[in-house]
Amino acid sequence: MGTTKFCIASCGEFVGSSQKQKRLNSACLSCPSSAYSSLSFSWRFDSAAFRQSRSAVAIRATSTRISVRVNASSATGVPNDELEASSTGAIGASDLLIVGPGVLGRMVAEIWRKERPGSRVYGQTLTTDHHDELIKLGISPCLKGTQVTHKFPYVIFCAPPSRNSDYPGEVREATLKWNGEGSFLFTSSSATYDCSDNGYCDEDTPVVPVGRSPRTDKLLNVEKVVLEAGGCILRLAGLYISFFTKQIEVPIHTGLKQGSLDIRPDHILNLIHYEDAASLAITILKKKLHGRIFLGCDDNPLSRQEVMELVNKSGKYNQKFDGFTGTTGPLGKKLNNSKTRAELGWEPKYPSFAQFLETL
């Protein structure tokens, strides 16, 4: 039996953490509450299990010459040195650009290529660290700063704000790579909704007023950029994922090693599996929607206490969690995305965290 990792942290960081390790062996929960605390269990998994063989790219009826110009100073740190490359390829009607191909982006790529055989998926990164991995996944990598003469019909931006000093500027640059057809999608956070009393919240709930929180200010500024460009917003709840191998690793979080955490147990968490977040994002892209805001969650909010009770009862983990000792701190919100589901005709593969645990 493997030990499992669940991290409860800021939703705005859900992609960044997935890109920093070459081998991610965990189940992660990343929730839109303020980053006052975290819960974590862990195991290791072989990232090769996440890879799939590259399928042959179908020949397109149309072909366009793409000229690429890269400023080497942004890619390699060498100033005043420019690399120029010119290659012949096709930007097809179903081709997709993923800005920030971490865990979520890679799942989007996997599903997209299955549903649209012959399409190409491109992944824009800040460094070349994971380019070999992307190529093995059938994703054509390119560095930030690469200039192409032709734009993409589909673009999804799922890079985190943590590694971008000018996040709105980065997103604005990405919108310029969209040709206005298909759809542009920015994955945001449900933290933007102004509710912190464990109350109910849906797509129409007002957002946090500008000036109250630097974190939500940044996200709302980016959302404004996207909507002005005609793109769509997907506000995601806490993301989680799991991979198993035979290797066992002891829990890594100090609080869980001690059997308790000094945070309040009644804080409400909202969850969505990475796979469901990817399928929801693709549903929005495929419908070629413009200027819309959607909410991604499993519609089954749980308190921290309920999450840990499910973990204990599941019998999947090597250690038991005794309880919470905290009595103060922020509360959460109870998300409901029935309007998103009704409009898009979308349902999650994992309707609740409890049902997900049953599959392990």
Strand order of the largest sheet: 5-4-3-7-8-10-15
Number of domains: 1
How many helical stretches?
Answer: 11
Structural class: alpha/beta
| Secondary structure tally: strands | 18
Largest sheet: 7 strands, parallel
Distance between the termini: 10 Å
What does this protein structure show overall?
- With 360 residues, this protein is an alpha/beta fold.
- It has one domain (11-52, 64-358): NAD(P)-binding Rossmann-like Domain (Rossmann fold, 3-Layer(aba) Sandwich).
- It is 26% helix and 22% strand.
- A 7-stranded parallel sheet has the order 5-4-3-7-8-10-15, with helices on both faces. It has a 3-stranded antiparallel sheet with strand order 2-1-6. It has a two-stranded parallel ribbon with strand order 9-18.
- Strand 7, helix 5 (167-175) and strand 8 (178-189) form a beta-alpha-beta unit.
- The chain is globular and about 55 Å long.
- Residues 1-88 and 243-256 have low confidence and may be disordered.
